[in-house]
Amino acid sequence: MLLEVNHVEKVFKTRFSNKTTIALRDVDFSVDNGEYIAIMGESGSGKTTLLNILATLERSTHGQVLLNGTNITNIKENDLAKFRREHLGFVFQDFNLLDTLNVRDNIYLPLVLNRETVQAMKMRLDMLAPQLNISELLNKQPFELSGGQKQRVAVARALMTKPDLVLGDEPTAALDSKNSDRLLNLFEKINDQGQTILMVTHSSVVASHAKRVLFIKDGMIYHQLYRAERSVSEFNKEINLAMSTILGGN
Amino acid sequence: MFYLKLAARNIRQSFKNFLPFLLATSTMFVMSYVLAAIAFSPELNQLQIQPKTVSMILMVGLAILAPFSIDISVYAYRFLLKKRSREFGLYDVLGLGKRQITIVALYELGMLFLFTMGIGLVFGISLAKFLFLIFVTILGGHVFNLSLTILSILEPLAVTGITFILLGIVVSWTIRHNSSLSLLHSENKGEREPKARVKLAFLGVLLLAIGYYMAVTVKSGETAVKMFAISVLLVIAGTYLFYMTFTIWYLQRQKKGRRYYRPEKFITTNAMLYRMKQNAIGLGNITILITMTIVTLVTTVMLQVGVSQATLKNMPYTTTLNALGQHSGEEMSSKDSLPSEKQFNRAVATAAQQSNVSITKGISYVDFGSQSVKVNDSSHPKITEITQSDAQNAQTVQIISRQTLIKMGNNVPNIGKNEVLIHNDNGHFNPDSITWFGHQLVVRGQTDALKNFPIAQFNSGNTSFIIVAANDQVVQQLIDSQNRMIRDGDPYQLPIRQFLINLNQTDSAKLVDAFTKLTDENMARYSVDRYSYLKETLSTLSGFLFIGFTLGLTFVLGAALIIYYKQIAEGEQDREAFRILQEVGLSKKEVSRTINSQIRLLFFTPIIIAVIHFAGSYVMVSKILTVFGVADSQLMLTVSAIVIVVIILLYYIIYKVTSRSYVKIVQRQV
Ligand SMILES: Nc1ncnc2c1ncn2[C@@H]1O[C@H](COP(=O)(O)OP(=O)(O)OP(=O)(O)O)[C@@H](O)[C@H]1O
Ligand SMILES: [Mg+2]
After folding, report:
1. Which of A19, A27, A47, A92 to mutate to test the pocket of ligand 1 (most atoms within 8 A of CB)?
2. Which of B119, B73, B103, B236 is nearest to B175 (CA)?
3. Of B234, B226, B232, B248, whose CA–CA distance to B206 is shortest?
4. Residue of A232, A236, B42, B373 with fewest CB within 10 Å of its CB?
């Protein structure tokens, strides 16, 4: 088992009032190596919170998360960053590229932080660049790129470290449908090569590209669907159906 | 009316955004006001030493300050605009036309102008009064008073007015030339990496080199001021060029280096390179302000400490009485102009009797004065020509007898009639023999440091030496031969009879008073009471001290303001970057390390360059100080070191305080 999420709870306390928000009540699921998972839910259902906990950017109030058997909720503050850059890759909604670096150096960034050699970085990028179709962009500055190009660069950066798990928070939200499709196809392709991917989204179209979809509601995993051998559009229909049943309950 | 109300509401609602801008404009106003208040004060003319030079320096200060003030204000306003462009874009999208938005923005500027004037005047006047009060309290007596003059308000008013007109143009242009969409997004507009312009980079270094060369090789005090102005301009231009081009060139070279892909270097180099264009001017401004602060403070403190030290050194006795004979003016020989020893001693004794002061410890001698002569570089120089003190190869020479030095308590070895000793006051004159206007003199060696020898009238700026001859008769012969060579227009030095004594303050005043009141037709009498002389000199100089410290404070304030602005502006820019870096895997510790290394670089660069600039100006500053009679190189070193340490400390405090606001903006709270 690559990832085990055991009874995770997250309660937010606001600093100024005593009001508490239960973002996650009891989230429990596991992920195998090579899976491609989408977590779906409405706005405010706790998707980002869950992803941030998996990403070690936030700590859970209760429960554990094991990645390859390591309990990541116990990692010391000082070791978190190192853990993150060695085991996880991120693709965010707003790309999160550094304006100060050109595209190549943005992609190199996690490996630079890992103090790897220039040859190693170059070798890895030479492999990834053609696949992601970014070879022509390497010497540009981020502001010269379109949204789709930026997101492909962000994917390249996420894959540079050969992470155990790639996490995505609405990675297509800032893209038009064409670029969005392109990115999702790309995800499928790298998943086929064995990369485990977990992303959160509120769009059934996006989710239908995954192999498995988890539905989150009221801070719990409510339901799950496997794509199996179905086509994207068939899977999309089924997801929509499931959603209307779940939401219809409201 | 609607727009006016909207403008007022905008300011009220986002006052937090407007505050740093107001801080900038008001501080600049206060600075200009305080400087102008001194520069245009009628009391400036009461300074007894060089009031013209002081007012010129102040005018130069104002002239430098004006573009600074405009630059800082525009910088602050653009920073404000950047934060507000989203708001403007929203107005545009919501249907308020660009014209109307511009009107609102101009109304806002108008109100900000009034605020600036109000705050600036209140603080400016209070600060000027406050500084003045502190001065009166510390120094007492009649010092520089600051009266409110129209000009001192008009000058900063004009500068601020022009600044705001420029800001109006800036905002109109920004709104007109940006689509509403780009206004909405202008907060994160990217920028191309600056190009390294190698030729310009080396031009900057060249300008610096020429400026330094001029400053270091400057000759005498008179031309120093002119040369100083030119070299200062060169160095200022060179500094800006240096930051704008050389640093970029350097950083880009770093990028090609082997160690580029080390985490600390990687992030810092790129972050610095990315904003070097805006950084360059700011760093240049800080550097120049700090340099000016150091130069101003060193000069002022040197004047204050140096003049009293020089006075004590040049006037070893508290009380000096002296006299010249009354002469008719035709065929002057130095002997004729001297009253007889008997006559002089009688006058001194009478004065002592009348004032009831004991003068047994006093000494009496003839001072033959000093003369500038041409001395060629040789081990057997032939001195035949009297010249101006600033001419080439000019040396100021005083001839004194061995007897006189012994009277003053010096140990002087015995010398023959044709033998002399040399005492170097400032220089390294050590020949084997001298021909002094026809007299062959063998140099027996150098005398040790002279005790109790008054060199008040000695020009301490030039290279100068003292010739010690066997006795007064020999001295008289030497002087006579010298005076025979005097041509029309040459300065003529009259010998005087001197009486020197150390007394307490009241006795000294009494004796001097009695001596001046004597009635004796045959002598022109002069006297100096060191106590009152020092007091008077220092009280004149305290005006300088006041001006110097006000200038220094103004410069430091300006530097502090720029640093503060850099920190908050860069904090806003870097916040996003550091968030991303932390997500990609930069630990908190590494974040602080990176932040610190960036801050350190930006902290140390200007202060190091400022200290180098000061080192370059060192020779020139000391030359200018000799115009005021201060020429103590040991003291200059000490004062410089202390001033630099104080400035670095002050600068460090400013940086610590402001960088805290940077770190607070940047650090991610998890
Ligand atoms: N830092 C925080 N402090 C307090 N409450 C928070 C915080 N972050 C999230 N919440 C609350 O937790 C709940 C879940 O938020 P979360 O951002 O995970 O939702 P989401 O599923 O990502 O929504 P969306 O689809 O809109 O992005 C919400 O009710 C939100 O208000
Ligand atoms: Mg979310």
Report:
1. A47
2. B103
3. B234
4. B42
